[in-house]
Write a structure and sequence with these properties.
There is one protein chain. With 274 residues, the chain is α+β, with helices and mostly antiparallel strands. Strands 7, 8, 9, 10, 11, 12, 13, 14 and 15 form a nine-stranded mixed β-sheet that branches. The longest helix is centred in the N-terminal third of the chain and has 15 residues. Bound molecules: pyridoxal-5'-phosphate. The site of pyridoxal-5'-phosphate has 13 residues, from helix 5 and strand 13.
């Protein structure tokens, strides 16, 4: 596989950034992960808009969208169409001082690709004890400071689960470490509102548009009462949850989960801006 770094495509094994890159030293960066189908990045326009919003939130100058699009096209051209299933776009603060202060260097643009991710039909999840801070300066931004997510996912794996769910500081359901969450009960579908500090997931947004699901402030107890639960993310699309904290969810996948997955499969290519 190849990588885009330093303004060109190189072999992944030869891809380096500076040891003084602020993204590496203090996590001063933003990123996007996209699904790639048949050599075509899915929902690139939406991802670029979110990348720009995340960068603005950090006060980072993201490269112009056209430059990023050109880099994406060049990197994907360097692979066979079925070879790539996921693409990550990272923009960091560039070379800078060792501390929190940012330097004057231009931002670093780094693109990596990987094979398609194959997700199991269902996932087990656990709620972790650490909150998603909905009042944080970086709430809702897709930054490279993911250490909290690393710790939470590790804890989930330790408990035999595949994903960790965060509550916000007020105890409301928020999101997973790399996913948004939907719950269905009494025939209606809900997902935590952005006030919970969750990322405005691209998949979450499309499922909201296509299913009539509603955003709501959801108490943790919804997880115990739900008839069905599912996760969404760019590489998963829609993934049913089978167990929450060891409790079997009554239906996995339930009818609302199946309808969301169907809507995604049927509409995602035709109805989303490239
Ligand atoms: C913390 C977090 N929440 C939600 C998501 C899902 O967002 P998307 O559907 O845009 O992939 C991700 C994606 O990786 C994420 O990292």
């Amino acid at each position: 596989m190849k990588t885009w770094v330093g303004g060109r495509v190189v072999e992944a094994a030869d891809a380096y950034v500076s040891a003084h890159d602020h993204g590496l030293t203090v996590g001063d960066g933003v990123f996007e992960t996209l699904k790639v189908v048949g050599g075509v990045p899915f929902a690139l326009t939406r991802h670029l808009a979110r990348l720009r919003a995340s960068a603005a939130g950090l006060g980072l100058d993201a490269p112009p969208d056209d430059d990023v699009r050109e880099a994406v096209a060049a990197l994907l051209r360097a692979h066979a169409p079925g070879e790539v299933g996921r693409l990550r776009i990272t923009v960091t603060g560039g070379v800078g001082p060792a501390g929190s202060e940012r330097g004057d260097a231009p931002p670093t643009l780094l693109l990596t690709v990987g094979p398609p991710t194959v997700w199991p039909a269902t996932a087990d999840v656990v709620v972790v004890p650490w909150p998603r801070n909905e009042r944080s300066a970086v709430a809702g931004l897709k930054t490279t400071s993911y250490a909290e997510n690393v710790v939470a996912l590790h804890e989930a794996r330790r408990k035999g689960a595949a994903e960790a769910l965060f509550l916000d500081t007020r105890g409301r359901l928020s999101e997973g470490t790399g996913s948004n969450v939907f719950v269905g009960w009494d025939g209606a579908l809900y997902t935590p509102s952005l006030a919970s500090g969750c990322l405005a997931g691209i998949t979450r947004g499309l499922v909201l548009e296509w299913t009539g699901a509603e955003e709501a402030d959801l108490d943790r107890s919804v997880l115990a009462d739900a008839d069905e639960v599912f996760l969404t993310s760019s590489t998963r699309d829609v993934q049913a949850v089978a167990h929450v904290d060891g409790r079997a969810v009554p239906a996995a996948p339930g009818p609302l989960t199946q309808a969301a997955a169907r809507a995604f499969a049927e509409r995602s290519v035709a109805d989303v801006d490239p």
